[in-house]
Amino acid sequence: MKRIMYLGLYWGDRYGEPPKSQAQKERDRRRVRELLKNIGKEKMFKPDEQLYDLELEICSPVFHYLMEELQKTPHLASSYIRVERIYTLEEKESAPLLQWRITNESIEDDYYGLYPSRDRKGIGDYVRRCEACGAPLEQIRDLWLNTRKMPKKGLSLTYSHEIILAPWLAQALQEAGFTGFTLRPAWHYTRPNQGEPPLYQLVVTHTLPPMASPPTEFESVQHCEVCGTTSHFLKRTHYWGKVQYYEDTDIYYTPEALAQAQDFNRTAELFGVLRVAKPYVLISQRVYRWLREHKVRGWDVVPVYVSRKEGEGR
Ligand SMILES: [Zn+2]
Question: Rounded to an integer, what distance in angstroms lies between the CA atom of residue 299 and that of residue 53?
Answer without folding.
Answer: 27
